Amino acid sequence: MALLIRPKTDGNDAIEEMKNTLYNICSTKYRITEVSKLKNNVKKSIISDDPTFKCFLKCCFDEMSLIDEDGIIDGDSMIQMTSDDDKLIAEQVIPNCIKTVKQDSCEAAFDFVSCVIKLNPSTAALLPL
């Protein structure tokens, strides 16, 4: 998935297409503001804790069927979707950021993304922004 893992695809064009698709779908549902500021902050591993942005992230996970109504992220499926180049990183980072307790889905998505970026800042480039 383009949300913090590089999916199994035919290259960077497919990744960018997936990121654009997720952005287009979820930004119409959750209007995030100051996108250029968000992008610049993400490059510095600074993630906005704006409630709308949190739900935007949840929408991206939801579009890829990677989060349930209880806010549980499907880490196993996420790892399976990861390209071979990033499999080791995914296997190291994702399990450390998965929570198995019921919580608000928007908050769960935000917490997961924040954790993954904290453990491996290079993953920030895969956010659909």
Any overview of this molecule?
It contains 6 helices and no strands. It is 57% helix and 0% strand. By secondary structure, the chain is an all-alpha fold. It has helices at 12-29, 35-43, 51-63, 75-81, 87-97, 105-119. This is Odorant-binding protein. Belongs to the PBP/GOBP family. It holds the Pfam family PBP_GOBP. Keywords: Secreted, Signal.
Characteristics:
Odorant-binding protein, single chain, mainly alpha, 6 helices
The backbone outline, from C-alpha atoms, is globular
**What structural category arises from helix and sheet content?**
mainly alpha
Parts with pLDDT < 50 across at least 5 consecutive residues: none
Question: How big a fraction of the residues is strand?
Answer: under 5%
Helical fraction equals 55-70%
Sheet of most strands:
none
Total helical segments: 6
Measure the end-to-end span.
Answer: 14 Å
Mean pLDDT across the residues is 85
Q: What is the fold's blueprint, element by element?
A:
Layout: H1 12-29, H2 35-43, H3 51-63, H4 75-81, H5 87-97, H6 105-119
Task: Describe the structure concisely for a colleague.
With 129 residues, the protein is mainly α. Helix content is 57%, strand content 0%.
